[in-house]
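Justification of computing resources. Each target in the renewal requires a structure prediction run like the one illustrated here; the chain below, 300 residues long, is used simply to show the kind of job we budget for.
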Amino acid sequence: MSTNSHANRGAADTGAGVIDPVAPSVAGGPLPVALEIDPARPGKLRPIAPAAPPHTRVQVILPFYNEAGLIRHTFEEVEAFALAHPEYAFLFVDDGSSDDTADTLRLLISESDIPESRLRLISYAPNRGKGQAVKAGVEGATADLVLFTDGDLAYSMDHLPKLAAALEQADVVIGSRSLVHRSERNTTTMRRIMGWTFNKCARAILGLPYTDTQAGLKGFRLDAARAIFARQRLGGFAFDVELVYLAKRLGYRIGEIPAYVSEAHSYKVSKVNLIKDPLRMFGALVDVRCNAILGRYGRR
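Resulting structure tokens:
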């Protein structure tokens, strides 16, 4: 018997008889594959199939507009979370930024150890508003659960598993700052007054029973997300209340979780215009009500 035959027998002998391995090869030698006993062919080996990548159970949408100054910090937080939670994927949506937000994200994604299938970027121009940015992300979603949160991480990543867990018992889950004790809300007095006024109007005009519809922290089961966003008509920052109204109109089960504003975000300079924005917010509520009366949301 040749030396090679002895070598092959020695490599294949497991102590339970001679096994004749059948391994794929390429020019230059066999592929470095792991082998296991084939239960369908006693005495034979088969290559061990590579482990399937973890199922992407949750997709998180993060909209941005001219956030080049903080995008690296946000990406570091997202990357750390994604490494610890392989069932999560993240979709960054650049809403027509005029700064380096999109270019910086492309570079960071290309340099990350996380597969690009779990870190993706959508970028377009011109700016269309936060509501349209989130909708763009939902349109390409395939995960079981679809979440969105503010790109500046006003709400920490710790909220994401809580949203996902709450979706076990609901079709739609909204973050509510009202469920947080006042001492932990980290919001300015003006923001609290405007939020309280807006939500009072939302309850009166749209019949919504929730005390906070505007927190940028929401989650949906995929079928609910598709049905709701297909009917969405508002693109500005008041789109949140339209989503909640549509969820209620379509009969989906709506849950709530506490939404804790990060302490760092409480010091961020507000972009709210104290004269124009309250008028726009009230006008958005009227728009939603008129859309419903005129049948623009379709059948329930």
